[in-house]
Design brief:
The complex is a heterodimer of chains A (230) and B (107).
Chain A: H1 3-14, E1 19-24, E2 30-34, H2 44-53, E3 57-61, E4 64-71, E5 76-80, H3 84-95, E6 99-103, E7 119-121, H4 125-128, E8 138-142, H5 147-159, E9 164-167, H6 171-183, H7 188-192, E10 194-195, H8 207-223
Helix pairs in contact in A: 3-8
Chain B: H1 5-17, E1 22-31, E2 41-45, E3 50-52, H2 60-73, E4 77-82, H3 86-89, E5 98-106
Classes of the chains: A alpha/beta (230), B alpha+beta (107).
């Protein structure tokens, strides 16, 4: 690898942008592909597939064995609401490799005793969220059930284009939420991104089961091919 | 894991910029129960200092030795380690897996 490539890879990684290094292992020939330059790349389909799976692998193209190293940003999870569901969801997400932060202005909920080993920010979303640098590689889960807390947080998630946005609440609660969000300037595209009622329909009852339903839905969003994509 | 991958590549860049000879080893293929997935990096400098891992510690020594040669020659190499390779490298993966490691000079 030449120093120029290495420096570029480090810049992309620091900025949390995916980057690929494609190497012909028979002769060491190598090139770097930034995620932003994927469109029209001769290996676009292959690289997109590896990125979606978050997996580096040897691929064969035209009789050549090429190693595709995918440097994808570490996925984050931001949970709004230090509630019972979050106590089950946070450690589960951590075990799946997510960098987890729980936000809840209610200090009785957002206590370190309730969330050992998880970063907890006991502030309102407008204070807590900007320093977290929420980005596309963030799963955003709003579960306080309190519009004063969830609504501004969801507006922030739209702005940052999170790959997954979910919000707790029945269909009726959610319909009211959509009206409020629209009144605050959210577009139809924005609100269509919210998964609500949150989680895959697996008949979850206990907080732990709801956490499983949410985690499975996030995983599906991360790993399954998008409609219309290869 | 002790170091995140970004720290490993960051170290490679810093070593190189500080004038060291540097090699980068990458797991490119695995079979069976290999301890580190494809894409895992190990960086080595000309003083034999290394960071990262390509296995659970079973073959790092051999990779570092090869890397020092590659820093000198500039020729990349594809190494294979596994239970069947004990005679070739005198090291093997106790877990029973096989891995291929691509080692290249940072030029």
């Amino acid at each position: 690898m030449n120093l120029e490539t290495l420096t570029q890879v480090n810049i992309e990684r620091a900025a949390r942008r995916p980057v690929f290094v494609v190497t012909d292992v028979s002769n060491g020939e190598q090139r770097m592909v930034k995620a932003a330059d994927l469109a029209g790349d001769p290996l676009e389909a292959e690289l997109r597939k590896q990125l979606r799976m978050g997996k580096s692998a040897m691929i064969e193209v035209g009789g050549k064995k090429l190693f595709v190293n995918v440097y994808a940003p570490v996925a984050r999870m931001v949970i709004i609401g230090a509630v019972h569901i979050s106590q089950a969801l946070a450690p589960m997400a951590r075990s799946l490799g997510y960098d987890v932060t729980v936000v809840d202005p209610r200090t009785a909920f957002a206590s370190p005793e309730r969330f050992p080993d998880v970063r907890v920010v006991a502030e309102w979303p407008d204070v807590a969220l900007p320093p977290l640098n929420v980005d596309h590689y963030t799963a955003f889960v709003a579960v306080t059930h309190d519009p004063k807390i969830d609504d501004p947080a969801l507006l922030h998630a739209f702005e940052r284009d999170c790959f997954y946005i979910g919000a707790l609440g029945s269909r009726k609660t959610h319909a009211k939420r959509l009206d409020r969000l629209k009144a605050q300037g959210a577009s139809d595209d924005n609100i269509a991104k919210i998964h609500a009622p949150i989680g895959l329909p697996i008949g979850a009852i206990s907080p732990g089961e709801v956490a499983v339903a949410i985690m499975a839905q996030i995983t599906a969003q991360l790993r399954l091919p998008k409609e219309g994509a290869s | 894991m002790l170091e995140r991958d970004e720290d490993i590549l960051q170290a490679a860049e810093e070593w190189k910029k500080a004038g060291h000879g540097v090699a980068l080893a990458t797991v490119v293929e695995t079979w069976g129960s290999a301890p580190r997935p494809a894409g895992s990096n190990l960086v080595i400098n000309d003083e034999g200092t290394f960071l990262g891992s390509v296995s659970g510690g079973c073959v790092e020594g051999a990779v570092v030795t090869e890397a020092l040669d590659i820093i000198a020659s500039g020729q990349p190499k594809l190494l294979e380690f596994g239970v069947a390779d004990e005679t070739a490298f005198n090291v093997g993966l106790s877990c029973g897996g096989t891995i291929r490691v691509f080692v290249e000079k940072v030029a």
